[in-house]
Each structure stands twice: as C-alpha cells, then as structure tokens.
Amino acid sequence: MKRQRKISTKDMVQCMVFTVLIIVGAFIKIPVPVVPFTLQFLFTMMAGLLLGGRLGAISVGVYAILGLIGLPVFAEGGGFWYLLKPSFGYIIGFILAAYVTGRMTEIKKNPDFKWILFANFTGLFLVYLVGMVYYYVICNFVIHTPIGLWPLFLYCFLLAVPGDICLCFLAAFLAGRLIPAIRKA
Question: In the Cβ-directed half-sphere of 24, how many Cα atoms lie within 13 Å?
C-alpha cells in the first residue's frame, strides 16, 4: 500500500501562493454574458503544471473552500449559496483540471511545449465539461430557470472559450520555461 506524502511547509506556502494568484485572477475580468472571463483559469492551470496534480488541486480546492465559507474571492462574490449559482461548476472543473494537468506533466520527465499544451487543452475540456453540465442541471432542475442546449453552448462555451484557449498557450509557454527550473531546484 502506497503512503501519502505529508505536505511540507514549503508545499503549503506554494499552494497558498497559487491560491492567492487565483483569487487575484478572479478580479481581473472582462465582462462576457453569463460567465465572466477571468484569469482564474490561467492560475489554476499554472498551479497544476508547476505544483503537480495533488498540490495544484489542493491550492484550487482551498480557493473554493475560502469562497464557500463566505470570503468574496469568486468572480461574483462568495458564500455557501454560490453552490446554487450555475457558474459554480466551472470552479469544480478548475480543481479537476489542475489535478489532471499536473498529473500529465508529472508523468513526463521533461515535458515539452506540445505536451504541456495538450495537458492544458485536456484541462480546458474538463473545466467546460463540468461547468456546462453543472450549469444545465442547476438551471433546469434546481433554480427552475430553464436553459436549452444551444443557448448553453453559445453563452457558456462559444463566447467564453476563445480567451481560455489563448490562456492555454500562455500557460504552456510559461510552464515550459518554469518547469525545468523548478525541477532542477
């Protein structure tokens, strides 16, 4: 049976740095209908890429917990009620994406730009998959403000994804430069 490694003080500090970056990224936003475009996605991907799957997911998870306990760290506030906000699924997707992108880069000894970009696009797919499914379920079955599949696809994907695609390239470029330095240290 494999034992889980304890989290060191250094790991905690690194996680908190990315948690703070994600919070800052939530407030750097470009207004887009339905789901605001923020830099959260960039910092959640960087958390996974640079810290690895486990620590990256922990840093994003801490961000989610801080928001759910009431700190206004989400793009539109915070609080337990945020679970009923259709866009909360994207935050769940951030946690999953940070874990997956981190694991994908951990399995390669020297991940190149193409591999990191592939990991980012996998993370992007997961964020939008979880986000859109959550949005649809909350709207149609919980808060009873029905949304059809075409408006869901238009507002929650087509209008939002171009900026996140650019962030995938930026994260791959940055991580390609930073991963070797981090692993060497």
Answer: 8
Report residue 175 as tokens.
């991580």
Query: What is the end-to-end Cα distance of the chain in Å, rounded?
Result: 29
Instruction: Give residue-wise pLDDT tens across range 85-115.
Output: 999 999 999 999 999 999 999 999 899 999 9
| Distance of alpha carbon 152 from alpha carbon 81, whole angstroms | 22
Alpha carbon 148 to its chain's center: 25
Alpha-carbon dihedral 64, 69, 75, 76, rounded to 10 degrees: 150
- The overall average pLDDT reported for the chain is 93
Residue 81 and residue 142: Cα distance in Å, rounded? 13
How far is it, in rounded angstroms, from Cα 67 to Cα 141?
Answer: 24
